[in-house]
Amino acid sequence: GETFKVLIKDEKEMIKFGSKVGSCLEKGDVLLLEGKLGSGKTTFVRGIIKDAFSPSFTLLNKYNFKDTQIYHFDFYRLEKPDYDLFIELEEVEDAVVIVEWPKFDIPIFEKSTILKFIIFEDHREVIICGEKAREFYQSYSKK
Ligand code: ADP
Ligand code: MG
Q1: Which of the ligands is closest to the CA of residue 121?
Q2: How many CB atoms lie within 10 A of CB 43?
Q3: Residue of 43, 45, 53, 100 to mutate, ligand 1, most atoms within 8 A of C-beta
Q4: Relative to the alpha carbon of 40, which ligand is closest?
Q5: 91-102 pLDDT per residue, tens
Q6: Atom of ligand 1 lying closest to residue 10 CA
Q7: Is 99 close to ligand 1, i.e. is its CB under 6 Å away?
Q8: Measured CA distances, 36 to 2, 4, 40, 45, 136 (Å)
Q9: Of these four, 75, 80, 95, 134, which has the most CB atoms within 10 Å of its CB?
Q10: 97: Cβ contacts below 8 Å, ≥ 6 apart
Q11: Which helix (H) or strand (E) covers residue 72, if one does?
């Protein structure tokens, strides 16, 4: 599919990018956030949900969002697949699922938008592909 790239100069701009993506989100959307530690994944989520915090210890944080919920996962510390959790994930309907470090392949990931966060010396780049890549890209480029 198509791939898009955005340049993000600082933290404030990453939050703005997150909020633009947030305005596109609907029930059933799945976002996979890839990229090294400190690349801006959680900062991006803070643009979608103002008070979001890293789920790297809790594994999952749930938030109310518009008329639905957001399930925000971080699999970084999950060393082996947790099938009970994955079954629970498969049963998530009518919500938005966001996963940092999507290192296990789960069926619901098949229909997702992938955002890859890359660190450069003086900025970040985010490569977007999959389901809603064009929509996310356009919502941000419009400003
Ligand atoms: P991750 O969830 O990918 O581990 P975080 O979002 O928790 O990363 O941390 C990113 C860190 O990088 C924050 O401390 C943030 O202030 C800093 N930072 C510097 N420049 C940027 C940028 N352009 N976009 C996002 N974060 C940035
Ligand atoms: Mg994080």
Answers
A1: 1
A2: 22
A3: 43
A4: 1
A5: 888 899 999 999
A6: 23
A7: no
A8: 23, 19, 9, 15, 21
A9: 75
A10: 29, 30, 31, 70, 71, 73, 89, 108
A11: strand 68-74
ipTM exceeds 0.95: yes
Each residue's pLDDT tens digit, 5-57: 999 999 999 999 999 999 999 999 999 999 999 999 999 999 999 999 999 99
> What is the domain partition of the chain in residue ranges?
3-141
Number of CB atoms found within 10 A of residue 75's CB: 20
Residue bearing the CA closest to ligand 1, atom 11: 38
d(CA 60, CA 98): 10
State the DSSP string of 9-49.
-SHHHHHHHHHHHHTT--TT-EEEEE--TTSSHHHHHHHHS
Amino acid in the structure at residue 137:
Y
CATH class of segment(s) 3-141: alpha beta
Q: What is the pLDDT of residues 102-137, one digit of tens each?
A: 999 999 999 999 999 999 999 999 999 999 999 999
